[in-house]
Amino acid sequence: MAAVVGLAGGVGIGIGPASAHVTVNAPGATQGGYAKLAFRVPNERDNASTTKVEVNIPVETAIASVSVRPTPGWTATAERSKLTTPLRVHGSDVTEAITKITWTAAAGSAVKPGEFQEFEVSAGPLPEVDQIVFKALQTYSNNEVVRWIDEPATSGAEAEHPAPVLKLAKTGAADASVANANLNLASSTDDNDSGNPVGIAALAVGLVAVVLAVVAWRRSS
Fold this sequence. Notes:
- The strands form 4 sheets. Strands 1, 4, 5, 7 and 10 form a 5-stranded antiparallel β-sheet that branches. The protein has a 5-stranded antiparallel β-sheet with strand order 8-9-6-12-13, with no helix packed on it. A two-stranded antiparallel sheet has the order 2-3.
- It has helices at 173-194, 197-220, and strands at residues 4-5, 7-8, 11-12, 23-25, 35-42, 50-56, 65-68, 74-89, 92-105, 115-124, 131-133, 136-140, 145-148, 165-167.
- A hairpin with a 2-residue loop joins strand 2 (7-8) and strand 3.
- The protein has 2 helices and 14 strands; from the N terminus they run ββββββββββββββαα.
- It folds into 2 domains: 4-171, Uncharacterised protein YcnI-like PF07987, DUF1775 (Immunoglobulin-like); 176-220, no CATH class.
- The longest helix has 24 residues, at 197-220.
- By secondary structure, it is α+β, with helices and mostly antiparallel strands.
- The protein is globular, with a radius of gyration of 28 Å.
- It starts with a strand and ends with a helix.
């Protein structure tokens, strides 16, 4: 996956402070489920490239199965840690889990100024918690290290270097949402059919045909 450059009319778009954080995205992620996590890493510097990204998975919210999708031009390494409390998965105890993933760029593959890169991970079962905080480190070609490790504040105020946070819906919440959406769609379709001009026209034609048939029968008799 090549790094992506933001363009508008051929001109590079600068990344503002509010949009330049390292983030994680996993649509539909639920507690106890599996999901594809995409860590987006934008380059904030004008004079350096991103050469290494480290993402930490907290032991207290450990994930039993973690696999990394290969990113062209980058090498991924994983570190495992022993778990104080084993995870029970499919009837077996998992006593260690991946707690750190490091992506390192090969020559010529670093994320350049004005670009971003996404690193994908398949993970599950996700823990039974409302959110997972993935603290991350971003290393630049000038040896600068940006520590995206600030946890969410209870006040809701955004920190200077917020850690990527993945929100997890409760089990069944996503299915319920889809079911409700389908129910609303079905109701909408029924309502639309009742007022459909084509349907009304067809009904009118049918009534006319019945009337003509009755008139013809009376004349013949």
